[in-house]
Amino acid sequence: MLLGKYSMGIGDRFGRQGKAQLRALELAAKQGVVVEPVWNKSHREHTIVGTQPQSVRAEADAAVAALDWTGAYYVDADHIGLGNVDLFISSSDFFTLDVADFTGKPAVDDAIREFVRSHRSLAKSLRIPGIAEPVEITQQRIETIARKYLLAVHEAGKIYRHIEAVKGEGNFVTEVSMDETETPQTPVEMLFILAAVAGEGIPAQTIAPKFTGRFNKGVDYAGNVAAFAKEFDEDLAVIAFAVKEFGLPSNLKLSIHSGSDKFSIYSPMKESLRRHDAGLHLKTAGTTWLEELIGLATAGGDGLAIAKEIYRGAHGRFDELCVPYKTVIDIDTARLPSPDTVDGWSGGEYAAALRHDQSCAAYNPHLRQILHVAYKLAAEMGKRYTAAVEKHEDAIAPNVIENIFERHVKRVFV
Predict the structure, then answer these.
(1) What distance in Å separates the CA atoms of residue 345 and residue 297, rounded to the nearest whole number?
(2) Average pLDDT by consecutive 10-residue portion of the chain (414 residues)?
């Protein structure tokens, strides 16, 4: 099972937008670019919404059947570990192995010494095609990297082998994720992380590092774009080098988590992808739920009432909703409108504040972020919310399609 050159994580909190999401990728195919859909939903999201992993498989299969999609598609067990992977094994064929919690914790000394010994041939002034200056590597530097990351890769190996024992070799796609760590991984660290991945026998097809800057939920990249662009470009070079050096899968590619709406870095990403002829996996999960809210608001009536009710609830339960996402949101509460103000808005005003259109003076990234993490409130509405989404599908679907195709696919892949 080989993941294509370009793929996109299209998570869906409430499992109602599969067809609209797939239509966006149909538009890409009509322009000659194949972007393979990967429906993803994490254990945390299932817990909050009250769904089971099998529901994601059902949504994906139904969308594919309805649109007669003949290309590849996948269902991702997003951010799983040994403690919850069994819930996903039967319904998933893509597994994001989240080992961020194990970074910074050292493996046993014998394992570290053996890793350094195995890769001491790289302890030199190393030239990596695509990186202008030689990379200076010493055995001490290899040991430092091993102390920080080797245990995490060992854990990824345990998870991978657990899945493989059930599903069989070659029957699923594996991603190794270290994006939810405190500090970014440098390209040199990436090189030896990949060496460890190969040493564990993990046929990783995507690797998700933490990059420089802030990847906040649903809003643009915050940070030094030039620094990110250099890091991203060098990571692509390192991956190409590691594939040949360590015998990793030839289709190994970078995965960008919380990749939705990072408009300011899409152009340099696209340039680097073309320069290196490299692939990319872009995760955009939570953005679809916001397009549902936009569609409900513009539908008016009961749809707008629900959208306003969710904002009022989010404003009143700020800490409860935001604390679990504190590392990936930056909200200035002084810039949030009061619930009473929002109650006076028209559907168009609500949509303008929420829709990620930076040319619109009404756009409010603080409101957008709090609503991004407020899907729990819609889940608490139960059938009232999902029935409204189904009722107003004609208002919602165009927003979902436009968001994925125009704002994401076209800017990164086409």
Answers:
(1) 10
(2) 97 95 97 97 92 97 98 96 96 96 94 97 96 95 97 98 98 94 92 98 97 94 97 98 98 95 98 98 91 98 98 97 91 98 98 97 98 97 97 98 97 96
Residues 300 and 273 in one domain: no
What DSSP designation does 213 have? Answer: S
Looking at the structure, tell me whether residues 133 and 41 fall in a common domain: yes
Q: For 361, which DSSP code?
A: T
Q: How far is CA 135 from CA 68, 118, 129, in A?
A: 49, 19, 11
Residue 22: Cβ-neighbour burial (10 angstroms; 0-12, 13-18, 19+) = buried
- Contact (CB, 8 A) for 206 and 251: no
349: in domain: yes
